[in-house]
Amino acid sequence: MAADPEWLERMRSIGSISRRSGDQVRAGRDEAGQRFKATTDELGNTVTERSGDRQDVTINAPRVTVQTTTHEER
Fold first, then answer.
1. Alpha carbon separation from 13 to 6, 10, 27, 58 (Å, rounded)
2. What is the three-class DSSP state of 44?
3. Containing domain of residue 52, as a range?
4. Which domain of life is it from (predicted)?
5. Is there a domain that residue 32 lies in?
């Protein structure tokens, strides 16, 4: 029994719907010679794991616009 070609095409395109690359991971040594692993997610937030069970977190919060209104009673 062969699968429906339309269904197969949908299954093949699931990972490419959003066109996102996923998490990016870098590993190496810093200037002091200590090991690190930096993981950057799709939103640009970075978690850096360092030796000695330390972590640095950099969060790129989206810009928030606030509008205010005033109401007058008559």
1. 11, 5, 31, 32
2. coil
3. 22-59
4. Bacteria
5. yes
Counting the structural domains of the chain, the total is 1
Could you read off the pLDDT of 10-61 as tens digits, one per residue?
777 665 555 566 789 999 998 999 999 999 988 889 999 998 889 999 988 8
**Does a structural domain hold residue 4?**
no
Going by C-beta distance under 8 Å and a sequence separation of 6 or more, which residues neighbour residue 56?
46, 47, 48, 50
Residue whose C-alpha is closest to residue 47's, from 26, 19, 20: 26
The owner of tokens 């977190």 is 57
Report which of 52, 17, 16, 60 is spatially closest to residue 32, judged by C-alpha positions. 52
Written as one letter, the residue type at 19 is R
